[in-house]
Amino acid sequence: MTLFHLKLIVTPLLMWAISLASRRWGGLLGGLLSGLPITSALVMTFLCLEQGTAFALGAVPGALGGLAAVQATYTFYLFATRKLGIAPAVLLAMLFYGVAAYAFTHGGNLYLSIAVALLLIGVLIRASGREPRPDTLARPRRQRFWEIPLRMVSATSLLMVITSLANWLGPAASGMLAPIPVIAWPLVVFAHVQSGRAGMATMVRGNAIGAVGVIAFYLVLAGLLDAWGVAIAISLGMLCAVILTVGLAAALRRG
């Protein structure tokens, strides 16, 4: 099995599983799962295998800059949708992401990106907590049969584009695109359409909590990739991400 076939199999299966989990157990769990560095781990794994570990390490600062831009985009979307409809807010949020990602990648540095990402994570957790709670008694809108397949296709297509253009983009731009929430964004928008602001805010909250784990993933990867190899570094990075995400979610729930 080639890497091309692996991408075609793994990415849509992940989107399918997270979509079903979100439908069954709620938006917060879906947000937590999609907020974990699943897409980032896939992109970084493929970059390591196709371009080499030096290329992947060069992509880490850009990835953290991209992560800060992702949190800025969620913040923009959360507040913009108080005044705008979903469609214009999504388009403006995507444009905002491009500007923010370029600014963080070319005008910032590793530590600034981490600091801004953590600040925005705090803003998102606080702001989403002030949104109305989902009405558990309300009857949810009927799911369309094409919704999950559309999410699967969009996630797979973007992953293929990012990894296929890595040579042309270079490590900085490839890293900047790695944390694009190709799984989370469709989930957030579909949650907004299906459940209103309450469902969207719950999904955004889960993604913000998961982003703390994403930061840990990249830092572990940067520290261990050369010394311990691809498999161990990415596995340990994912383990740290899961532990931090679960711990933070539990602490916020108790609070």
UniProtKB/TrEMBL annotation:
Coiled-coil residue spans: none
Organism: Pseudomonas inefficax
Keywords: Membrane, Transmembrane, Transmembrane helix
Residue intervals passing through the bilayer: 25-47, 53-77, 84-104, 110-127, 148-170, 176-194, 206-225, 231-252
Protein name: Membrane protein
Highest rank taxon of the organism: Bacteria
